[in-house]
Design goal:
- About 75% of the residues lie in helices and about 10% in strands.
- With about 110 residues, it is mainly α.
- It has one domain: Arc Repressor Mutant, subunit A (Orthogonal Bundle), CATH 1.10.10.
- Helix 2 crosses helix 3.
- The model has no long low-confidence stretch (mean pLDDT about 90).
């Protein structure tokens, strides 16, 4: 009976130890990379928004399609960038919906 209990405790210890080691290694491996990925994405987003503003300095207007082609991003991403710039009061939307919508510097 004592051997059975000792064996079960040893097996439970091995399982718990393995889990904790795996969890720590996973956190170390992906935690740093995830932080770097998020930082890199935020940096790229700010660069893209800056590129939009630079384009508008030398051009009268920009459309969602212009942003898509210029930056190589999806329609949703282009819309998100333009909406954020508008909320930051850097650009103004002209028009309400459809192909007639474009943006200008404020």
């Amino acid at each position: 009976m004592n051997y059975l209990i000792l064996t079960l405790v040893a097996i439970a210890g091995i399982i718990i130890g393995s889990y904790l080691t795996y969890a720590e290694l996973t956190r170390k491996k992906y935690g740093t990379n995830a932080d770097n990925l998020i930082f890199g994405q935020a940096k790229k987003k700010e660069e893209n928004k800056s590129d939009i503003l630079e384009f508008l300095k030398s051009n009268e207007k920009i459309t969602n399609n212009d942003v898509e082609k210029m930056l190589g991003v999806s329609d949703a991403t282009a819309t998100r960038y333009l909406n954020e710039l508008e909320k930051e009061h850097k650009i103004k939307q002209i028009g309400t919906v459809g192909h007639a919508v474009y943006y200008r510097l404020i």
